[in-house]
Write a structure and sequence with these properties.
The structure is a single chain. With 270 residues, the protein is mostly helical. The protein contains 9 helices and no strands. It folds into 2 domains: 69 residues, no CATH class; 176 residues, no CATH class. The protein is elongated.
Length: 270
């Protein structure tokens, strides 16, 4: 079975969304409706029906190609797809929702900035950059989901409070216990509790790292947006666009590493 990376699947779906946007655009609907109307009820000569139909088809095809190649319309279609896939309202934490909203807004503004760039090699480089940002947002959303789940996990929160106290209570009882077998069992229980506490602390530290990484990612998105504005103003070559892509690749890798580490900690504590 062929494996498709998430960003490849997203790219294919984005292409489908762009095509659907071109097909179902309201202007296309108007052309189709008028073509049907004048074909069924020809205003001049009934013998010209096929000419009306052919003319309408040519007009629709021209409009379809125009919409399909319109960078602004394409950016809007992809933005709607991203918002559907990475819906901030599905997150329980208001802070997480706000961060994903901000990331999606950056993505929208970046796409609009690229759409205003002159046609040529530079725009193609910047379009590749936008595609990388889509993957970036996907990783950011996964991070937000895990943080959201952690904050809503009452069992983890209760364990964070109760396990240290349980260790302390067992240690106090151990000092006054004379029975060797009971002492041995208490020691084993204490060690087990300490291992649990270590996992909980590791998880908490990982969540703190994840929050910092999310902040860093949003800051980097803001920086890239401002750099794209500079590219548009100064009309520089594609070298800076390439550096932007490299920066994004590094950020995507960092996000992916954090998500993977969080999953490992969760599995270790399961």
């Amino acid at each position: 079975m062929t494996y498709e990376r998430p960003q490849e699947t997203l790219r294919k779906r984005a292409t489908s969304a762009i095509i659907e946007n071109a097909i179902f655009d309201w202007k296309s609907g108007v052309v189709i409706a008028l073509t049907i109307l004048i074909t069924v009820f020809p205003p001049i000569n009934e013998g010209w029906r096929w000419y009306y139909l052919a003319g309408g088809a040519v007009m629709w095809l021209a409009l379809f190609v125009s919409i399909l190649t319109d960078p602004t319309a394409n950016a809007k279609a992809v933005a709607e797809l991203l918002r559907h896939d990475f819906n901030p309202q599905e997150l329980r934490s208001q802070a997480a929702r706000d961060e994903i909203e901000k990331a999606l807004e950056y993505r929208k503004r970046i796409a609009e900035t690229i759409a205003r760039t002159r046609e040529g090699v530079l725009r193609e480089h910047l379009r590749d950059t936008a595609t990388q940002i889509d993957e970036w947002i996907g990783n950011l959303y996964q991070l937000a989901q895990r943080l959201d789940a952690f904050e809503a996990d009452e069992v983890i929160r209760q364990d964070m409070r109760s396990v240290p106290q349980a260790i302390q209570n067992l240690a106090t009882k151990l000092k006054g216990e004379d029975d060797a077998s009971v002492r041995e069992q208490m020691v084993q229980t204490i060690e087990s509790k300490k291992a649990q506490l270590a996992n909980l602390q590791q998880l908490e530290n990982m969540m703190q790292k994840a929050e910092l990484q999310m902040d860093s990612t949003l800051t980097a998105m803001g920086t890239i947006y401002s750099q794209l504005l500079i590219i548009g103003v100064k009309d520089i070559d594609s070298g800076r666009a390439q550096r932007l892509r490299e920066d994004i690749t590094e950020q995507v890798k960092q996000l992916h590493d954090v998500v993977s580490s969080m999953d490992e900690v969760y599995r270790a504590g399961a």
